[in-house]
Task: inverse folding
DNA sequence: GTAATTTATTACCATAGGTTCAGTTTTAAA
DNA sequence: TTTAAAACTGAACCTATGGTAATAAATTAC
């Protein structure tokens, strides 16, 4: 009864003893709206898998400005990849935008799992490949597009998110101010 | 006598038959300065590993503006991750900035290798994890930093590249114009 | 249902960085 | 070595987007 396993099992079968191991590693957690699952300044190394709801990761400056790194819905992973794969302390926060359910996989335990059950390694290698493509696309968008173009791309690529996410957070994802986004929306929707 | 294998072997030993397989998959190629190894509009799916020299991947608009996605030196991978992991045609070009030597791994053959030799899968999963962290950092920089700050970060993080790479390409990596970079450098070095 | 808080919009001004174009220096080619 | 091409710098001007501030709308809390 674990959604990550269901998702995973679409591709491979899981021996009973491995399924037990997986159930031991995977910790289910329910989050309320606004709840923070990973605070900045922490050293916690965890993979987070979204079962339902919507989460976002963001960086907050000393002056209180927020920059959204990622949004994640059903079947997406969200983590602070810098903390996970370097020894740096977390500078980002992960919060739940809605009531949501996530699965948390401790990094060390996951590394063990990779050893005893290679198909999970394959599964994750493929995940990371896809993520790399997504991130490359994001970088290209940030480099090449105007504010309005970035917003249009967002609306296209993240149609499912648009209704859930407040505009000021979309702006912080695109690297523009809420005022700019407002201006853009006015232009866009008057037509 | 293969540098990727040397690099890889630091962590694991390779059975003889697998080493043969690897040598069959891995194609060595020497590039001259300016040579293009992956053209845009192609569907070629390859992993490229840099043995020596320096390469860069970039996107070029119809008007001829270039946006650099990545630079890569010794022991880095460089590819068009969008073409590799989606069915989209390549919109980026990969060129050699210096005389260089690369190893090319065809995607399909590499996928076979993963199957017969799981340690290579582990090796690549870890590579991709690191890459994800690097890309997250880049995105954060693009979102939060001013042109001058981005340049300073670049100088810090890519010290080895700085002497090799022309300024206009650094500018295209940072998402600013060569003129802007010139202005910034003037300020920076007059102090 | 009302008050309090958060989010979104609008307007007006400020500015970082883009554009254009000219001049100079460096690199490559012949 | 000379010439041509590419890269870099500089300055004047322009524009997209940011900053600030005030208002309105929408959510949330009581």
Result:
């Amino acid at each position: 009864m674990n959604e990550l396993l269901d998702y995973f099992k679409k591709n491979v079968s899981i021996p009973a003893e491995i399924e037990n191991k997986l159930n031991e590693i995977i910790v289910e957690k329910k989050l309320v709206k606004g709840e923070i699952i990973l605070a900045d300044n922490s050293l916690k190394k965890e993979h987070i898998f979204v079962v339902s709801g919507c989460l976002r990761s963001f960086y907050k400056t000393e002056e209180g400005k927020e920059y959204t790194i990622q949004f994640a819905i059903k079947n997406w992973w969200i983590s602070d990849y810098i903390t996970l794969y370097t020894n740096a302390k977390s500078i980002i926060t992960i919060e739940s935008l809605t009531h949501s359910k996530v699965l948390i996989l401790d990094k060390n335990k996951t590394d063990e799992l990779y050893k005893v059950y290679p198909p999970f390694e394959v599964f994750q290698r493929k995940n990371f490949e896809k993520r790399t493509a997504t991130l490359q696309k994001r970088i290209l968008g940030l480099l090449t597009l105007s504010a309005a173009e970035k917003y249009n791309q967002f609306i296209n690529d993240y149609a499912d998110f648009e209704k859930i996410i407040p505009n000021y957070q979309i702006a912080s994802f695109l690297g523009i101010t809420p005022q700019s986004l407002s201006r853009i929306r006015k232009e866009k929707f008057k037509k």
